[in-house]
Specification:
The complex is a heterodimer of chains A (607) and B (379). By secondary structure, chain A is mostly helical. Chain A has helices at residues 24-38, 43-71, 117-153, 162-184, 198-201, 207-234, 247-279, 292-326, 333-346, 361-388, 398-415, 418-421, 423-429, 433-463, 469-496, 510-540, 598-604, and strands at residues 77-80, 98-101, 108-110, 113-115. Chain B folds into three domains: 9-101, Helix Hairpins; 108-247, Cupredoxins -  blue copper proteins (Immunoglobulin-like, Sandwich), CATH 2.60.40; 254-374, Cytochrome c-like domain (Cytochrome Bc1 Complex, Chain D, domain 2), CATH 1.10.760.10. In chain B, 35% of the residues lie in helices and 18% in strands. Chain B is built from nine helices and twelve strands. Chain B starts with 8 loop residues before the first helix and ends in a 5-residue tail after the last helix. Classes of the chains: A mainly alpha (607), B alpha+beta (379).
């Protein structure tokens, strides 16, 4: 893999010849290039492959989500058949004729029996959950952005174990293959939570292969986490102490700890599920002598911390977005860093709040109290981000719009947490659309919006191309409006009592469901617009300067895209990650960035 | 918050219907959390937009004004205040939860058995409900409770996990196989239905607000979203009349009783009566034929003909469903042993018989004759 060390890591080394596309020489060059990517140990290439894969999973999961919303546009009802004039049609015996209405997906007969409209919906929502959780959002930030940017941000040449990193990527692909196989074999209709005894007794679909897929994906997650922990401990650039690390690195470090400690529990649980399904070993199914609540405890012992695998890296992204696009030292750097660690720790103690209607009341009280502990560090982060904007230099570009969109959505997501943590109100809201709205405000309004922000923030760095900011800002606005219309209505559906995972609903909920579905269309248009803007940027985008936003963290010191070994010379850290009042951003003209009087800075910092 | 009662537009916007004594304190707590959150949210968003506009780069230039990057007093304040508010929320929620948890000793016990995808209710008098209503695409049971009297449900499941959820009561509890869970509530004094002695049926007081929905809130498979029911609240006297009507099935023709049981015992979840295929075989036109139960052999000692759908076949299919599986279907049904009386089996047979047009004429008469011959009592 030797190559030109001063060239961009994206520059092809294969000799494509000049015989034109699809000539024999071109194919030889193409094969060389494919082999080079498939066997690469470069963290940036592996990260980019992850990024393509997770965005593809997001696309699939998104299409499924649109189908779900379409099905929910009408409640399914039996109505009288009427003629053109609106009169009820009677049959020969003088009885009313009825028909079923509002089913988007008609049933059909498969080899295993009839697939009803319900069944099809149930498979879709299970697929949506499994794709979005296991294939998209868990690997999205840690594996994709973490891989590309952690080594760059700490000034390292690569991650600590590049071969292990490549192996994680292939394990991810292998696990994903099982999920796709399961999908082709009829999918699953258990929900992504695989609750027993339904999941161990259902005759439908290929639950075992989907569970095996999730089991395998877990190893990818564990290995990536271990890799990052060692990388952060051992490979920081000379001069970089723990409190000189960018907050994205702190957040990724906290996430890695959760990945390494929690994922094995999921692996054990899923393995027991497979054994129960395949060999009828009774662990969870009461018919075999098992305990179904035990499954829920095991499952949420992983899956609650997993919520933080999905959101803590987003916190890291937002810290970077706000600091860089406000040219401002982050307010309360240490509070933000430590709150990531404390959220990671507390996340292991609160799994029981997913089961307030299932577990023992005594456990409920303990888990309710512990759950509030996680709210405080989360609130502190939001306060710090907004305080950072005070007396800052705020650019209203796409990444910053996404940071503000995150603050808006995530605040709603966070503030709708207490009604779930409070026992009395959760007993009403549990398993209703209020929960669906709440976690979409956190996962989509929080994590996905942060991922979109990160894409726009780092796009020039890893592609070397600028995108067109003005249309991107409009699309960001569409995504924001579409998202809020889609999901805010679901809070009302939830308090009014519409349970989740419903293929059909009573007519009282029609209006709210229709508003929500229309919101999903706006959201889809916004996301599609972003895709077009990115494609335009790749095809004919202006070449990006190394530091378009004026960032101070180390990734802005190298070329765009970075050279194969990240830095031409090993960087030595001479300033903190957010010293905007002391340092002119690399690549910027000091005339454009008149530094304030150092005496003033010293006074403001209180030393 | 309590200024706005359960019938105010604000309460109906959020909760639509309110029907139990849990509502006032539970909703007051919800609106307390809502108000605190709304104030915090508006404050935060105002600050964010204000800073964003005031300190926009086009106004202040590339370099931000110097300010202190931390402030211990401020940071302690914004950690302690949320902590206090959270402590209040927790304690209030805990207190209110205890109310929802512990049933009064004078509550009426009603047994609930959930299965895929049907609800069965057993009242203290041993009977269930014969009444049903079309909800969505499914005939769903109607259950009545007296206004202002506490009810305790003792619930179990026959197969997977379900959950009993009446949104208007603000309470919910999961239902597990092989274990009992309980849930209690006390309906308010608002009477939603009266009992019509002529039709022997419950009639809504206000057609626009015909009682409360019962939903299954824990995902349980194919017809999860159609596992609904209707909760009617009636006066004490109507309740007694309604119970008596539910217990006395003697006046109901066997075919009609069979049809009621078809819906209320959960048969309709898997078997159709219009010839179409579902999880189980249809009931239409199978009686007396020999091309439906191909390969079925009667139990020893029976004089039933092999492969022919008749009384012996139906009885075995209800009480021991796994003994024989119709080709093309899988073994999904659980036994109804102990859950149906002989008279009810006879009613179901009569209904199935009636569903084959060749036997329609004689179905009822045959049933009544057998009823007399075997000396089966009315119930």
């Amino acid at each position: 893999m030797s190559g030109d060390h001063d060239a961009s890591f994206l520059k092809p080394i294969g000799d494509f010849g000049d015989g034109g596309v699809f000539s024999a020489q071109w194919w030889r060059g193409f094969r060389t290039e494919v082999w080079r990517w498939a066997t690469t140990l470069d963290h940036k290439k592996i990260g980019l492959m992850y990024l393509c894969a997770v965005l593809f999973a997001f696309f699939l999961g998104g299409v499924v989500a649109l189908m779900l919303r379409m099905e929910l546009f009408y409640p399914t009802m039996i109505v009288d058949v009427t003629d053109a004039a609106g009169n009820v049609v009677l049959n020969d015996a003088g009885e009313k004729i009825t028909k079923t209405t509002g089913e988007l997906f008609p049933g059909w007969t498969s080899s295993k029996g009839p697939v009803t409209s319900n069944n099809f919906y149930n498979r879709l929502f299970s697929l949506h959950g499994a794709l979005m959780v296991f294939l998209f959002i868990i690997p999205a930030v840690p594996a994709a952005f973490g891989n590309i940017f952690i080594p760059l941000m700490i000034g390292a040449k690569d991650v600590a174990f590049p071969r292990l990193n490549l192996m994680s990527w292939y394990i991810y692909l292998f696990g994903g293959t099982f999920a796709v196989y399961s999908l082709l074999m009829g999918g699953v209709e258990t929900g992504w939570t695989f609750y027993t005894p339904y999941s161990t007794s259902t005759q439908w679909g290929s639950v075992t292969s989907m569970v095996l897929g999730a089991f395998i994906l877990g190893f990818s997650s564990i290995l990536t986490g271990m890799n990052f922990i060692v990388t952060v401990h051992k490979l920081r650039a000379p001069g970089m102490g723990w409190f000189d690390m960018p907050l994205f690195v702190w957040a990724s470090y906290a996430t890695s700890i959760i990945q390494v400690l929690a994922t094995p529990v999921l692996a054990i649980t899923l393995l027991m599920l497979i054994f129960e399904r395949t060999f009828r070993i009774g662990v969870f199914d009461p018919a075999l002598g098992g305990d179904p609540v035990l499954f829920q405890h095991f499952f949420w012992f992983y899956s609650h911390p997993a919520v933080y695998i999905m959101i803590v890296p987003a916190f890291g992204i937002v810290s970077e977005l706000i600091a860089v696009h406000c040219h401002k030292r982050l307010f309360g750097y240490k509070a933000i860093a430590f709150s990531s660690i404390s959220i990671a720790s507390v996340s292991f103690l609160i799994w029981g709040h997913h089961m307030f209607t299932a577990e023992s009341p005594a456990a409920n009280v303990v888990f309710s109290a512990l759950t509030f502990l996680v709210a405080i560090p989360t609130a502190i982060k939001v306060f710090n981000w907004i305080a950072t904007m005070y007396k800052a230099s705020v650019t209203w570009n796409t990444p910053m719009l996404y940071a503000m969109s995150f603050l808006f959505n995530f605040s709603i997501g966070g503030l709708t947490g207490p009604p779930h943590a409070v026992l009395s109100t959760d007993i009403h809201l549990h398993d209703t659309y209020f929960v669906v709205a709440h976690f979409h405000y956190v996962m989509m309004g929080g994590s996905v919006i942060a991922v979109l922000g990160a894409l726009h923030h780092w796009w020039p760095k890893f592609t070397g191309k600028m995108y067109n900011d003005k249309p991107a800002r409009w699309m960001a606005l569409l995504v924001f409006i579409g998202f809020n219309v889609t999901f805010f209505t679901q809070f009302f559906l939830g308090t009014q009592g519409m349970p989740r995972r419903y293929a059909t609903y009573v007519p009282e909920f029609t209006t709210l469901n229709q508003i929500s579905t229309m919101g999903s269309w706006v959201l889809a248009i916004g996301l599609f617009g972003h895709l077009l803007i990115f494609v335009q940027s790749l095809v004919s985008g202006r070449k990006a300067p190394p530091n378009p936003w004026g960032g101070l963290t180390l990734e802005w010191y190298t070329d765009a895209p970075p050279v194969e070994h990240n830095f031409a010379h090993e960087p030595v850290l001479t300033h903190g990650p957010y010293d905007y009042d002391l340092v002119v951003p690399p690549g910027w003209d000091p005339a454009d960035y008149p530094l304030p009087d150092p005496e003033l800075v010293r006074k403001a910092h209180g030393h | 918050m309590s200024v706005l009662g359960a019938e105010s537009w604000w309460s109906r916007l959020w909760f639509r219907e309110s029907g139990s004594t849990f509502v006032p304190s539970s909703d007051a707590l919800f609106f307390f959390i809502f108000t605190v959150s709304a104030i915090a949210f508006v404050g935060l968003m105002f600050a964010m937009l204000w800073f964003g506009v005031m300190y926009r780069r086009s106004k202040v230039g590339n370099v931000a004004e110097v300010s202190s990057p931390h402030n211990t007093k401020l940071e302690i304040t914004w950690s302690v205040i949320p902590a206090i508010v959270m402590a209040i929320m927790f304690y209030w929620g805990f207190q209110d939860y205890l109310k929802k948890l512990i049933a009064p000793s004078d509550a009426m016990n009603v047994y609930v058995t959930a299965s895929q995808w049907a609800w069965e209710f057993t009242y203290p008098d041993g009977g269930g409900t014969l009444e049903s209503e079309m909800i969505g695409v499914k005939v769903s049971p109607v259950i009545a409770f007296p206004a202002g009297k506490p009810v305790k449900l003792i619930m179990t499941s026959r197969d997977v996990i379900h959950a009993f959820f009446v949104p208007s009561f603000r309470t919910k509890r999961d239902i597990f196989p092989n274990r009992y869970t309980t849930l209690w509530f006390e309906p308010t004094d608002r009477v939603t239905h009266t009992f019509s002695a002529d039709d022997k049926k419950l009639v809504p007081v206000d057609p626009n607000r015909p009682g409360y929905y019962l939903f299954c809130a824990e995902y349980c498979g194919d017809q999860h979203s159609q596992m609904a029911g209707r909760v009617a609240i009636v006066s004490d006297t109507d309740y007694v009349k309604w119970r008596n009507a539910q217990l006395d099935t003697s006046g109901i023709p066997l075919r009609d009783l069979g049809e009621i049981l078809y819906f209320n015992k959960g048969c309709s979840a898997c078997h159709t009566v219009d010839g179409s295929k579902n999880t189980g075989p249809t009931w239409q036109g199978i009686w007396g034929t020999n091309d439906h139960a191909v390969g079925w052999t009667p139990p020893s000692g029976s004089d039933a003909k092999a492969g022919v759908v008749g009384p012996e076949y139906i009885r075995q299919s209800i009480l021991d469903p796994s003994a024989y599986i119709v080709p093309g279907f899988t073994n999904q049904m659980t036994s109804y042993q102990g859950r149906v009386t002989d008279r009810e089996i006879l009613a179901l047979m009569t209904y199935i018989k009636w569903l084959n047009s060749d036997f329609r004429e004689e179905a009822e008469a045959d049933g009544v004759r057998e009823l007399d011959e075997r000396g089966l009592v009315a119930n």
